Amino acid sequence: MQFLSESVPWLDNFIFAMAPLGIVTAVVSAIRVCGSPGLRAFIGRAQEGGGIAEAELCSSTSRDVCELYHNGAIVRVFGRPKILEIVHDPGETDFYTGLPKPTYGIYTFREYVENTVAGRQEWREGGKPSRTAITDPEIRGVHLVPAQDKTGGQDGFAPKPNLSFNIGIKKRPTYVYWLAAGLGFLAQMSVIVFGALVTHRWRWGKGDGPPPAWAFPMMTSGTILLSCGMFFCAFLVERSTKERIFHKTSRKPYPSARSSSEESSRPSPRTYVIQPGNQSIGDQTYDAFAFSDASSPLTDYVTSWKALPQAGDHLKAWLATGTTAIGFSLQFTGLRAMHSAVSVVLLAGILMMSIIGSALRTARLKKEQNLLDRRPDQVEGHELDWLAMQLGRGNSWSVKPQIKSSGSLLGSMNRRYDADTASQVEILEIHERFQNDFTLAISAFRYKQTTNPGELASRNAISIAENRWLRNNDGRQSNDLAVKLFYYRTRLAEMTGQSLRNVPTSSGEWDDRLVPLRQQVRQLKRAIESSTQALFNHANFRPGWSDVKSFAWSFDVDVSLSGAWADADLKRLHIFTRQTDLNSSRQSASWEVDQNSLEAALGLWVWSIVSNPLTESTDAMELKSSWASQVPVARIISFGVTLSDIGIAEREFRSWAEYLPGSMSTKRVKTAPRPANQGAHTIWMAEGFPSTLRPLTGSQADKYPAAELLRLCGWMSLELAQQQDDSTPALALTVSTKQSIPSLCAQDLYQGFLCQAATMLESIGGTTTLGPGSCDFYLTNDVVTKLVESVKDSGLGTQEDAYLMVIPALARQCRLPLINEVLPEIYKSANRERLAGQFTNAESILKQAWALSQGPQTRSLEPRNVHLYTIGQELAELYRNAYRTSLLGRNIQRIKRIELEDFGRAGIVWLEENKSQPWPVTELDQLIDRYTDFRRRWSAESPRSISTAAQVLETLARDDRAWCLFEISRTRDVALSDADGRPILSWAAQKGWREIVNASLEIGCEVNAEDNAGRTALSYAAQSGQDGIVRTLLENQAFPGARDAIGRTPLSYASEKEHIEVMKTLMDEPDVSVRAGDNSGRSPLHWAAAGGANSAIDLLLERRAAMNDKDSRGMTPVMTAWSEGQFSTADHLVERGARVEEV
To answer: DSSP readout, 935-969?
Structure first.
């Protein structure tokens, strides 16, 4: 039965029919394959499925029958296991041919012999003339149209590889089969000849009598019929399949296209077979298997598939069965009547042919030819990654971070046009500066304004531009090992991926059980696509970047031939993220990223970590395994040089993460001497005192159990602080995690993507709000929340993991929303706590804001100084109010008054200590000095006394701000005004003394109180340009349209003095009119013209101020400017459209 399943040419059938053994098996086999239901019922196989008979008897493979390697042998199994057979042409190095689906030199055998020039020249199909060779050097590697199937079979090729024929059995020379057939014929004829001699010449009879006359003819006819019947049975079994046999020619591919030296140096194509492990068929589990013909190239290739049933098969089965049965009966009867010596000769012939038949099949695949024989468990799930390494002859492949040093700035932004599609596609590029080098961070492709995306040529233009761009970037290093490995693995993912449809392949779809990391790949794909959509829908992009149709984000790779990581030049690779519909708008567009590319990057990286020699061990059976997954893992949030750096980074992270990780810790890491160690592939060990993490070396691997080591991830978003020298360890803020290695690497790839994508943004956009958190408060932003939800919903990580990825990535590119966006809410929250008597809570909120204002992102921006000043002022006011409450508070026990005074004193002392923090601010220093003076005066005042409003007015009159602060903190009486009727609030607003304004309002000063001239505090604040105080007064119900005794409004005063920010604040109020005139009919535009305030004029005109309105004297604004001597302003008004004929 095994001989039948391995028979292809008719010569095998002939050998099988000579002096045959297993007659019943042959008959039963023919019936099982071609017999009618009646015949199959006769042998008890009426309900047998065709797949079982095919698996046991035929040479074919089909969708239900396959051949697998199992413990040293090729076995035929019934089911749908997965196995991949490829041909790799290492001489094909042009990966950027512009084809829709580049092959990178990796094909199925069918694709190779039917679709490529090299395959058509290298292989010739048996029984057919050699196909025309295409040797034009201009079309080397061109993919031809697949040859049409003329065999009538299923696509003319077996759906699964025939391992037995191609690698399982060693082929004998043809003459050996002819010799075996000749010996078989002689053995069969010798029985007949010997029977003739015994019967007619030697007259040997059975017992004492001569042999019957009918015995020899019956034996002879039976033998002939039996041989014919056996041949017919074997032929029916063999005919139930169809085969195509290819023979390798002696010609090299492309002989006319290369010189003889090039021919000899060009590596020959190789055939590889890879079988994933952990496949269960029935009660058997199959380990991983890999084969390569590198040491002994294949000379023949056979593909066999099940033929469709033919009319007359049942009749032929009856004929073969009947012939064999009759022949056997006649032979048996004849032999019974003849001398026993004839039976002995027949037995000798049968034994001889059995030995010859088995000898033809004894040279089989050796167990040592399984390249994965010593690592079945280690490689399980990583077979494709291992194969890619074998194709490229690499040993390790690791994604490495581009760690930006502190203080590095974003580099240049380029804009150019693709050479092939210059009229349609524009290319945008951003380069980042790392130390003294500029590296490409991200590139994007968009249509020019005149391009119609709906046209087919326009849709193809993006693809053409992308391919040309790749050729100019990755293509320059196409011979580089990192590039080869990446594209080899991409191709293997395509050939076995679940997204592949309508493409003939011998592998089928490998599910998550065979390639477990595909689950993480899909999660990563969903996270990237969802995050891209969130950014393009809600974030603020750089000019020109919001309408890109695709962009290529990059990552760096380090490879090794020996397994030891070295400080070599990193190779930068790119992955495209594209719009699925190029006609869609920015808001409605959906995005996709190539899953095969993600699988290539993730798979090679994870396999390099798992196969790291440092984590390999060998058991008693000499089988390799890996303990890489047993090493504890921590994710780095930030690097720093001092504990202060780490503290600032931790507070910044905690201000965004509502759900805080509970295992944050600071570790000392020795990173500077070996940049190659910066990555998830490195294992760290703790040594010395204080404990410092250093990379684990080979000599130390056996000294530490896995639980005492550490793997660090999260390098993609780090900003490494400048170290004084190589001996200075860095401090790392880390969080322990229990994620698997594939999940960690996938999260790092996402973090790298987000770092690159953030360079396209002008700002993160969205709305930033304040919420109560496990700390004093936490910040929320629409876009940040959507990014976190993208990660969480994709399954790539928990909400905690999402924050650990998103926040450091955005912080690295300074794209986190600034603290100033929520400062008003922070102040309100702190004020609510203070009014409720919770001074400590209020202080905690403000101190958190103080810390955030000094974070890495905020301190690089100019407005930070203003924000730090206002936070400092809020803190100082909190401490001053604690002093005031301790003196003037009602129903407060004495012990509480003492606590409040101590609280205020300690707080102001803390501010004094922070005066000398880095980046000192002069205004802040002055502010702290005032409150320091306040603290000293309060301490010197004994016993405590209460001040009056007159004393406060006196300090205002002599312009003593510090003393005024002291006096107003001790008074409840604010009703008194000076001789001009101006209250304390009016004077404080004009002077810009914000703390005095707040104190006045808090103790009951009327916000709309008027002086003798009818002016309010808002009027004076607007005239002096105090925008912050204007906002404070408006928040406290100040009337923005209030008119004084001469009819002027706050807007007219601000316009005259050209206080633009005050004007904007006032004009945003609904009660303010830009055309409101005073008692003399002058509008704000008149007063701006009189004051020579050109910027104020432009702003008023933007808000629809009337250019040619006249006052009570008939003067227009341009006439007012002339009359006041503001000639340049008059010219400006004329340029803006003022009528001059009336001047």
So the answer is: HHHHHH--S-----HHHHHHHHHTT-HHHHHHHHT
| DSSP strand pairing (84-88 vs 624-626) | unpaired
Q: How many domains does the chain have?
A: 4
pLDDT tens for 781-794 read 899 999 999 999 99
Can you tell me the distance from the alpha carbon of 1093 to that of 1055, in angstroms, rounded to the nearest whole number? 7
- The answer to whether residues 355 and 436 belong to one domain is no
Are the CB atoms for 938 and 900 separated by under 8 Å?
A: no
Closest CA to 398 of 632, 610, 695: 610
Calpha distance 855→814 (Å, rounded): 10
Of the CA atoms within 13 Å of residue 19, those in its CB half-sphere come to 29
Q: Are 934 and 962 in contact (CB under 8 A)?
A: yes
| Same domain, yes or no: 1035 and 949 | yes
Asked if 907 and 879 count as a contact pair (C-beta separation under 8 A), the reply is: yes
Q: For 201-214, how does the pLDDT look when each residue is reduced to its tens digit (9 = 90+)?
A: 887 877 777 778 88
What's the pLDDT tens digit per position in 949-961?
A: 888 888 888 888 9
Q: What Å distances lie between residue 266 and 252, 407, 488, CA to CA?
A: 9, 49, 19
Which DSSP state fits 979?
Answer: T
740 CA to centre of own chain: 16
Q: What six digits make up the tokens of 580?
A: 């699925």
Distance CA 106, CA 112 (A): 8
| CB atoms closer than 10 angstroms to residue 357 | 20
Q: Collapsing DSSP states into helix, strand and coil, what is residue 204?
A: coil
Q: Which of 878, 886, 885 is nearest to 843 (CA)?
A: 878
Q: Tell me: the pLDDT tens digits for 383-406?
A: 999 999 999 888 888 888 876 554
Whole-angstrom CA distances from 677 to 439, 568, 608, 641, 688 are: 21, 12, 14, 18, 19
Residue pointed to by tokens 């070295």: 566
Q: What are the angstrom distances between the C-alpha of 809 and each of 538, 573, 749, 784, 1009?
A: 18, 19, 11, 11, 52
Which DSSP string corresponds to 67-121? EEEETTEEEEEES----EEEEE-TT-----S--SS--TTEE-HHHHHHHBHHHHH
Cα gap 860→762, rounded to integer Å: 15
Q: What is the CB neighbour count within 10 angstroms for residue 1143?
A: 15
Helix/strand/coil for 704: coil
Is residue 670 in some structural domain? no
Report whether 535 contacts 757 (CB < 8 A): yes
Task: Say yes or no to pLDDT of 504 above 50.
Answer: no
Quick one: 1070 and 1096 in the same domain? no
Q: Are 279 and 68 in contact (CB under 8 A)?
A: yes
Q: Which residue has the tokens 């410092």?
A: 692
SS3 per-residue string spanning 544-612: CCCCCCEEEEEEEEEEECCCCCCCCCCEEEEEEEEECCCCCCCCCCCEEECHHHHHHHHHHHHHHHHCC
Strand 683-687, strand 709-713: pairing: antiparallel
Alpha helices for 836-944 (secondary structure H): 839-852, 864-888, 894-913, 922-940
Chosen domain end from 618, 639, 661: 618
3-state per-residue secondary structure call for 965-985:
HHHHCCCCCCCCCCCCCCCHH
Q: How far apart are CA 414 and CA 103, in angstroms?
A: 32
Query: Domain range holding 214?
Result: 2-84+168-369
User: Rounded to 5 degrees, what angle do the CA atoms 472, 478, 480 make?
Assistant: 125
Determine contact, residues 558/676, Cβ cutoff 8 Å.
Answer: yes
Q: Is residue 192 located within the same domain as residue 284?
A: yes
**What one-character DSSP code corresponds to residue 252?**
P
Residue 424 in 3-state DSSP? coil
Task: Determine the Cα angle at 491 with ends 486 and 495, to 5°.
Answer: 150
Give 175: exposed, middle or buried? Use CB within 10 Å, 0-12, 13-18, 19+.
exposed
> What is the per-residue pLDDT across 961-1015, written as a single tens digit (0 to 9) for each?
988 989 888 887 766 677 788 888 999 999 999 999 988 888 888 999 999 999 9
Q: Are 1056 and 1087 in contact (CB under 8 A)?
A: yes
Q: Which helix (H) or strand (E) holds 224?
A: helix 215-239
